[in-house]
């Protein structure tokens, strides 16, 4: 039976823009490659007469590519409204000598999932483009659900939290694209690998019965420690309630937490945290204080220093 935990505060709602296409391999790189030497992307290139030739896909797919580049936080608004600018993460990942320019490492896929479904990814505005992803992974606690179950909960959330008039068809299409993004089509032709949704590789959602789905919870063994640590630190930095310590319970269950977004149970999260001191050279430690498990940071309070640690941990996921 479908279930919802609690409301999200102040989230802006957005349920369109993908033109019903899930994110596909190499799309973000193609967008990245349109930037000039200053890291700026002219917005007109997505709509001019050369767009189809430039990106090698149809008109609707070009619009979808732009949508996903924004939704994942790879493109962000620039002071000159005629342009987008590449984000720090986009440059880190997709430059020709970047960490993963051709998205060959599953670490990148986990990171993109965090960008879409989490609350604390790079760039505060990006999450408004993937509301269904945010609601599904932060609020939905059903072990088994259908498209209709998810649609009903999102419809109720919109009714309660927004004055926007969102059409039923728009919500339905967004739910379908979200679920399609994480599930592999069993009858897909073998030659059609290029069209497989990027996020399906993670195996976070699986068909259970005809027309029904379930989360795959557990250790998430393909999730690199470096990506987990990066997400933990960005979650930590983005919540003013956390100073020098954060509890295991919050890392597992708080809205936007790695435990929720990656569908990891407490044992799986605790196992990740057990040797975090070794991974961070003692800058973050796993402790038991009066029976309460938590992680504490043993470093200065400057946010930029802590974020530098997050970037170092992210980079470690790509080291040979």
Strand content: 5-15%
Strand order of the largest sheet: 1-3-2
**What is the overall silhouette?**
globular
Structural class assignment: alpha+beta
Low-confidence stretches: 1-7, 122-126, 189-194
Protein name: DUF4007 domain-containing protein
InterPro entries: DUF4007
Organism: Pantoea ananatis (strain LMG 20103)
Pfam family, one: DUF4007
Description:
This is DUF4007 domain-containing protein. Residues 15-303 form the DUF4007 domain. There is one protein chain. A hairpin with a 4-residue loop joins strand 5 (205-207) and strand 6. By secondary structure, this protein is α+β, with helices and mostly antiparallel strands. Helix 7 packs across helix 8 (168-182) and helix 9 (225-237) runs antiparallel to helix 14 (303-316). The protein contains 14 helices and 9 strands. The protein is 41% helix and 11% strand. It has helices spanning 27-32, 51-55, 59-71, 88-94, 106-117, 131-139, 147-161, 168-182, 225-237, 248-253, 258-261, 266-273, 276-279, 303-316, and strands spanning 40-42, 75-77, 83-86, 145-146, 205-207, 212-215, 245-247, 284-289, 292-297. The protein folds into 2 domains: 11-215; 225-317, Arc Repressor Mutant, subunit A (Orthogonal Bundle), CATH 1.10.10.
């Amino acid at each position: 039976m479908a279930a919802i935990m609690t409301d999200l505060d102040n989230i802006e709602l957005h349920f369109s823009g993908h033109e019903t296409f899930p994110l596909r391999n190499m799309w973000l790189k193609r967008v990245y490659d349109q930037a000039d030497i200053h890291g700026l992307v002219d917005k007109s290139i997505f709509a001019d007469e050369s767009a189809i030739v430039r990106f090698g896909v149809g008109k609707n797919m070009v619009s979808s590519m732009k949508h996903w580049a924004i939704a994942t936080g790879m493109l962000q608004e620039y002071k000159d409204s005629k342009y987008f600018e590449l984000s720090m993460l986009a440059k880190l990942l997709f430059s020709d000598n970047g960490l993963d320019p051709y998205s060959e490492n599953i670490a990148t896929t986990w990171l993109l999932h965090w960008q879409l479904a989490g609350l604390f990814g790079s760039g505060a505005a990006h999450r408004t483009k993937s509301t269904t992803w945010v609601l599904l992974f932060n609020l939905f606690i059903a072990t088994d659900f259908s498209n209709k179950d998810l649609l009903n909960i999102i419809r109720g959330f919109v009714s309660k939290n927004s004055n926007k008039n969102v059409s039923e068809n728009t919500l339905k299409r967004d739910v379908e694209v979200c679920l399609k993004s994480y599930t592999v089509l069993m009858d897909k032709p073998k030659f059609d690998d290029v069209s497989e949704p990027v996020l399906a590789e993670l195996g976070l959602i699986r068909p259970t019965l005809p027309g029904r789905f379930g989360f795959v919870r557990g250790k998430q063994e393909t999730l690199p420690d470096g990506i987990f640590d990066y997400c933990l630190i960005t979650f930590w930095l983005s919540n003013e309630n956390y100073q020098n310590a954060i509890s295991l319970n919050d890392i597992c269950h708080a809205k936007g937490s790695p435990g929720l977004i990656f569908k990891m149970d407490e044992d799986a999260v605790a196992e990740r945290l057990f040797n975090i001191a070794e991974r961070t050279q003692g800058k973050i430690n796993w402790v038991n204080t009066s029976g309460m498990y938590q992680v504490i940071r043993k470093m200065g309070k400057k946010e930029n220093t802590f974020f530098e640690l997050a970037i170092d941990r992210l980079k470690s996921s790509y080291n040979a």
